[in-house]
Amino acid sequence: MTKNCPEEIMNINDARAKYTEKVIREQFLALVKEKPIAKIKVTELCKRCGINRATFYKHFIDIYDLLEKMEKDMLDSLAAYTEPDQFDNLETMFRRLYEGTKKYGYEWLVLYGENGDPTLSFKMRKLMEERCYPHFENVTADLSETERKYLYQFLSGGSLSIIASWIQTGMKEPVEDMAKVTVDTLNKTMNHH
Asked: Considering the domain 65-193 in this protein, what is its CATH number?
């Protein structure tokens, strides 16, 4: 009989921890499909996962910490997909945004849903403002700072509505088509400002 070396034990424990966190996240999403986040209790989630509360608390502080970490992973992924040096035009940026969204498709669908986090759209809007609206600076140069701010909020809200609708209807249309529709809609809006 051979003894496991400390490195093997660490790898086994790390894999176990990742698996446990994956199960917690999956069961949390299943619960969010059934009821609002505010009504989900740690004990109920643990029971569905087949773990005890101590195991849950090794990974998360509470239900809202779990939610925050899931959303952070999703938004960080979108931010990485849409780094300014990875695209040269708005359509490419939106294609990458849709690709990144699709990567976490089920999570977006659930957390954007009726029982999900109502603040998620604001977090997404902030990311979109950072990524795409510098592309409109030359077109909005004649606007005051206040006019530009509200125009960007209008544009990001509209873009976000298109993305949210695409998510909620199962992300059936190809990302290339959705990017084109979004940019065409933005350009039509900008040409009439």
From this structure: 1.10.357.10
Query: What's the one-letter identity of residue 10?
Result: M
CB atoms within 10 A of CB 42: 14
DSSP, collapsed to helix, strand or coil, labels residue 110 as helix
Supply 81's token pair.
């997909």
CA distances from 189 to 21, 126, 139, 182 (A): 43, 20, 11, 11
20 sits in the region (left: phi over 0; alpha: psi -120 to 50; else beta) called alpha
The dotted CATH code for 1-60 is 1.10.10
- Asked if 66 contacts 42 with a C-beta cutoff of 8 angstroms, the reply is no
Burial of residue 162 (number of CB atoms within 10 Å: 0-12, 13-18, 19+): middle
Interaxial angle between packed helices 63-81 and 90-103, expressed in degrees from 0 to 180 and rounded to the nearest 10 = 140
Biggest CA–CA distance in the chain, Å, is 78
Residue 126 carries which side chain, given as an amino acid letter?
K
50 Cβ contact partners less than 8 Å away, ≥ 6 residues apart: 23
Model pTM? 0.79
Distance CA 60, CA 55 (A): 9
Mean residue pLDDT across the chain = 85
pLDDT in tens, 50-70: 999 999 999 999 999 999 999
